[in-house]
Design a protein that fits this description.
mainly beta; Methylamine Dehydrogenase, Chain H; six-stranded antiparallel β-sheet; four-stranded antiparallel β-sheet; 30 strands; globular
Length: about 375
């Protein structure tokens, strides 16, 4: 183990191979005001900058507003926008649309039919609102992930307790380019089932990662589902043991799918970062658990230029998903074997929500921290080198 302090932040490196070079922090940026700001999903813009979304209590019209921040390639804020009403409105996923604008998915209590509804916000390249749409019923709904469809529309995945057959069901819905609903589907059983990430597949369908208590070995299990282009289920597979397992992110590969999340059914810690490889029909090829002596949770996975994977998440000394302490960045090879692990943090709380590999081979992590200058929690981005 090697511990360094770089640019005022403590990075704890656990090197699996002493021959590997380890990354160094290049910059970190926080965004916020006197209230709390949380979130951290990021997307890269065509000009080399970044979009970061979440929720702000410091700005806007309500108890908490959806917040969108545009930063340049060095993490310097260019502009920010708030969207919302008198309730709580949160951005949980952001993508750069084909027209150069952006779409944010999350949830709202300001608009819609029930207590909490799925909310889609479309903005132009400067963050000016073009349209917003709420979707839901008399109960609660939330969206965790949005993907652009081949026809220029958008697919959103999350959960609903207004529809379906269980307590909470996975909900997937499709809108056209103007935000008009084209279809929605509920998928689940008698327990709680939710979709946490969606990716478009080469055959025109979608793969969804999430968690289920209706199916699998016990507790909650990681869940992978494949649908066709109209959201009809083609197959669903559960992964896990008798503990609590979930998949928070998914990639389509040439030979199948890779999902990342967390498990306390396997591994050496309370919870461990979990990486699962499945074949094109969703059958498990391998699964790996990795982490520290604390509770470790994977939240985002991307493929790296060398064919391996980079994962962002957080550690929790309390061993719970709701109590992050340090942001976690973990690199594996193509077989999911850990090469290095870095904890980005120090005193206070940092949580890694998403990760991107950028053009110079480095990585940008988005999340939130209470080590910023604004007060409370702030949105946070940090760039580390390739290593």
């Amino acid at each position: 183990m090697r511990i360094e302090r770089i640019l005022g932040m403590t990075l704890i490196f656990l090197s699996i191979s002493s021959a590997l070079a380890l990354p160094e922090e290049e910059w970190n940026s926080t965004f916020g005001g006197p209230g709390h700001e949380v979130g951290g999903p990021i997307s890269k813009t065509p000009d080399g900058g970044y979009l970061l979304t979440g929720m702000t209590e410091s700005n806007g019209a309500g108890e908490g507003d959806l917040w969108l921040v545009k930063a340049d390639r060095n993490g310097t804020k260019l502009w920010d926008r708030t969207y919302g009403g008198g309730g709580v409105d949160v951005g949980e996923s952001v993508l750069v649309a084909g027209d150069g604008g952006c779409v944010v998915a999350g949830y709202t209590t300001s608009f819609g039919a029930g207590g909490r509804d799925v909310w889609l916000v479309k903005a132009d390249p400067e963050g000016n609102l073009e349209w917003d749409r709420a979707f839901g019923g008399p109960g609660d709904e939330a969206a965790w992930s949005v993907e652009e469809a081949d026809d220029g529309g958008y697919v959103v995945v999350g959960w609903t307790d207004s529809y379906g057959i269980g307590k909470v069901d996975l909900w997937i819905l499709k809108v056209d380019a103007s935000g008009t609903e084209e279809w929605n589907r509920t998928i689940g059983g008698p327990g709680d089932d939710e979709g946490l990430a969606v990716a478009a597949t080469r055959d025109g369908g979608y793969v969804v990662a999430g968690r289920t208590t209706s199916f699998g070995a016990g507790g909650s299990d990681g869940w992978l589902l494949k649908t066709d282009g109209s959201g009809k289920k083609e197959w669903a597979r559960s992964f896990g043991g008798y503990g609590e397992d979930g998949l928070s992110s998914v990639l389509e590969m040439e030979d199948g799918y890779v999902g990342a999340g967390y498990s306390n059914s396997f591994g050496s810690g309370d919870y461990d970062v979990w990486l699962v490889k499945a074949d094109p029909l969703g059958e498990e090829v391998w699964n790996r658990t990795m982490g520290t002596a604390a509770g470790d949770f994977g939240n985002s996975v991307k493929m790296t230029e060398d064919g391996g994977y980079i994962l962002a998440g957080w550690t929790s000394r309390a061993g719970t998903r709701a109590s992050p302490d340090d942001a976690l960045l973990l690199k594996t090879d193509s077989e999911g074997v850990a090469e290095w692990l870095a904890l980005l943090g120090g005193d206070g709380t940092q949580s890694g929500i998403s990760v991107l590999q950028v053009g110079d081979g480095g990585y940008v992590v988005g999340g939130f921290t209470n080590r910023g200058s604004g007060g409370g929690f702030d949105l946070w981005m940090t760039k580390v080198g390739e290593g």
